[in-house]
Design goal:
Two copies of one chain form a homodimer.
Chain A: E1 7-16, E2 21-28, E3 34-41, E4 46-51, E5 57-65, E6 70-74, E7 77-79, H1 86-98, E8 100-101, E9 105-107, E10 122-127, E11 131-132, E12 145-150, H2 151-159, H3 166-178, E13 182-184
Parallel strand pairs in A: 4-10
Antiparallel strand pairs in A: 1-2, 2-3, 4-7, 5-6, 5-12, 8-11, 9-10
Chain lengths: 187, 187
């Protein structure tokens, strides 16, 4: 069976400010059914990194996240600015959030954070030889701590639901797979 | 360093319909900095499933996703209705989308789809012995195909960026880990 795309019959922006760009579309399915309003968000693209240090530990950050109203353990991450390459964005974010610098970046396959609701992409990276070279440089609203964790501890945090930012869990496993640390057994 | 939560000083709904509930908060950080507007979305909770058949193949669906405007390969998934248990929701969604029934459900740790923007949770499940017992039963706007894929092929689709719905990539790896199929090497 071939799945057919919808047509966008009409499209208008209902919110567009520094924090959110939200569009309401009038769509038509291949069978001619009208879907309206279909909301699509257009954030900037996002970048994530699994940054290993020389001991093969992974750099995690901790910050308050107001959507879920909890302090969350995460990967270093951020947004790609206009005209910026994803590689430059993740180096900039990492330096701002943790003062750390990484060597060569390995780009993992881009992912969609939620293809039903978002028009943007996630660019995940993995890198080795992470070193802190300067102090953090945070915005007035940011309060971020960071620590290197051994891989088995990170996996245990995922299993216990303590590292639970789903987009970052995806990047973590992609990176462990690319680094040759994950193995499929019995298949 | 202990990361402190923000206070919500004021909160108002700016969109509330069948498709989206969007709140704009006025927040105050622990250092007294005002953050406004901070947008939070409150969708229903979401459910995902890695449904293995007797041959240890994984059930994937394909449908058009208008956020990214592409046909996407995904896990069976859906929304939890008011008063519904996540277990009941995933059984219902699986039956509607694919006509398949599963045996015992193993609940994986809940995740946040994006703790900065969303107030809801994802409840991921894994199950074995999936069998098609009836025809699909889709809404007028839904057009979903489904196929069982061998595990190595699913992993290859992830590596190639063809199975790229980030929330589902997270659930896939959690499920493979819980099923004892993923091993950590050399750590």
């Amino acid at each position: 069976m071939t799945i057919k795309p919808w047509k966008t019959v009409e499209s208008k922006y209902i919110l567009k400010d520094r924090w959110m760009t939200l569009r309401a579309d009038r769509c038509e399915t291949a069978e001619g059914v009208i879907v309206e309003p279909y909301y699509v968000q257009e954030p900037c693209d996002w970048v994530h990194i699994v940054a290993f240090n020389e001991k093969h530990e992974i750099l995690l950050t901790e910050q308050y996240r107001h959507g879920i109203a909890k302090v969350c353990l995460e990967l270093p991450c951020g947004g790609v600015e206009d005209g910026e390459a994803p590689e430059a964005a993740i180096r900039r974010e990492l330096l701002e959030e943790t003062g750390c610098q990484v060597g060569e970046l390995v780009a993992l396959p881009p992912m969609s954070p939620n293809p039903a609701r978002y028009a943007n992409l996630i660019y995940p990276f993995v890198s080795f030889g992470t070193e802190q070279i300067q102090e953090q440089s945070l915005d007035a609203t940011e309060d971020i701590s960071f620590t290197f964790y051994p891989i088995p501890q990170v996996i245990e945090l995922v299993r216990q639901g303590e590292f639970w930012q789903s987009l970052h869990v995806a990047t973590l496993f992609l990176a462990l797979d690319r680094a040759g640390i994950l193995k499929l057994k019995g298949v």
